[in-house]
TrEMBL record:
Gene Ontology molecular function terms on file: monoacylglycerol lipase activity; phosphatidylcholine lysophospholipase activity
GO CC entries: endoplasmic reticulum membrane
Protein name from the UniProt record: AB hydrolase-1 domain-containing protein
Organism: Taeniopygia guttata
AB hydrolase-1 domain: residues covered: 138-229
One Pfam entry name: Abhydrolase_1
Length: 256
């Protein structure tokens, strides 16, 4: 039986003695042998992802639709088995609604009211929620990232946190996500978001409206903000674009 460790390494066969000594100088003598068998494993472990990464551009060139699938990830509709019509099971003071953003496209939205209105909100219908938008609390339009739906737990957490901070939050599932109809596309997302913006604007009086984008949503927020400014912003809004570092971006139309 071979004894190892400490200074008693002399039991090792002579041919690795030199290596052993050299390594001991660097304080790694004990791992000298182990390294031999796990190195190839490590090599293949590192090589596999590298090769898959290298293959991606070729796959995308062969199958362009893969690109949109992997950018949007809307087919990953987690969490599964959620009843979108009953958001109150996940977050209080919230109602589910649908908005037709263009003919044939209807998107699902959750509207959470400021928690200071929580008691009042109990058992109220959509009409009450719509009227509540004019209560001077700022409104966040939340644009989520790729994959999953508005019911994903970190998004629900966002609704709770910002609701507690007394914001209105409207979280939509873009076309093709969750229970929204239609197919995902960059211009389609912008259309959905602008339709929601107009819907909010028609009900929110003088309240500020913020776009809060997360990941993929930051790009959508930028597109929507640019389009708003180009098409109807002139003279009406001073646009403020404070950038949060990843994972967020706030764009706010603010009144002067
Ligand atoms: C809603 O509020 C009640 C009372 O504060 C709390 O007990 C309950 O856990 C909340 N529900 C959810 C889904 O957060
Ligand atoms: C919005 O602001 C304008 C001018 O600041 C004011 O005249 C108007 O009454 C306000 N509207 C609401 C709904 O508060």
């Amino acid at each position: 039986m071979r004894r190892r460790g400490g200074d008693g390494d002399s039991g090792d066969s002579g041919d690795i003695g030199d290596i052993g000594r050299a390594e001991r100088r660097h304080g790694t003598a004990r791992h000298g042998r182990a390294r031999r068998w796990w190195l190839p494993w490590l090599r293949s472990l590192l090589l596999a992802p590298l090769l898959s990464c290298a293959a991606v551009p070729f796959l995308i060139r062969l199958f362009p639709s893969l690109l949109t699938k992997f950018v949007y990830l809307n087919f990953l509709a987690f969490p599964f088995f959620v009843d979108f019509r009953r958001p109150e099971l996940l977050v209080n003071n919230t109602i589910n609604l649908y908005l037709t953003t263009e003919p044939g496209v209807t998107v699902g939205i959750w509207h959470t009211v400021p928690s200071s209105k929580g008691a009042e909100a109990q058992g109220k219908e959509q009409r009450w929620y719509e009227e509540a938008l004019a209560d001077a609390h700022p409104v966040i339009i939340y644009l989520h990232g790729n994959g999953g739906t508005r019911a994903a737990s970190h998004r629900v957490q966002f609704l709770k946190t910002m609701g507690a901070a007394d914001f209105h939050i409207l979280a939509l599932d873009y076309r093709g996500y969750g229970d929204s109809t239609g197919r995902p596309s960059e211009s389609g997302f912008t259309t959905d978001v602008l339709a929601l913006y107009d819907w909010v604007k028609a009900r929110s009086g003088n309240s500020s409206i913020l776009f809060w984008g997360h990941s993929l949503g930051t790009g959508i927020a930028t597109n929507a903000a640019r389009k708003l400014q180009e098409e109807r912003g002139k003279g009406q809004h001073g646009w403020v674009v404070p950038m949060q570092c990843h994972p967020g971006l706030i764009l706010g139309p603010q009144r002067r």
